[in-house]
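Supplementary material to the annual report.
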Amino acid sequence: MEIKVLGPGCAKCHKTEEIVRAAVQESGVEVHVIKVSDAMEIAKSGVFGTPAVIVDGQVKAVGKIPSKQDVLNWIGK
Amino acid sequence: MSDACCAPGGDIMLLPCSGGSNVGQLSNQAAVELTREGFGKMFCLAGIGGRLPGFVQSARDVERMIVIDGCEIACGKAALEGAGVPLKSYLVVTDLDIGKNKDFNLNPQDVARVKDAVKDVLAVP
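Predicted assembly:
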């Protein structure tokens, strides 16, 4: 499983990455977490704003910080 | 590190139909100018109509959004419905007593009227 956290490097993006990593650790599931900061890469995903979270190619959240429970649900826990 | 580099919660998504008539292009021009002026941010209705996941999820998650259709055919509204995105705010340019035609020489006063109407619609809680 792969989770991408899209964001140029602001506080909200860092918080989102932090929550995602905490949820992954709690889940015990093997997940590759990737932080995407490149503006062109972010633009290719078609998101209106950041932070955004993409789980196995599926855009799950845009422009908001997800809760840890959200991430656990996406992971299937 | 800044809080300002991410889309703030108050960001407004502007979705003009950008259709092939004067009123469609008025919707587009109004969205372009509002974006330039910092009142919201124009977004790709075609991406939502095409069910591209990044566009659809963005429209679902954004707090404030307006679809600006040129006429009562309502292509923009239909694009959102087709993608399962709830319509939050809505404006039809022909409802402003601007007739539909194929003259693409847009009247700046009409553009201003559409922009004002967008602001009025979004001012209603």
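The radius of gyration of chain A is 11 Å.
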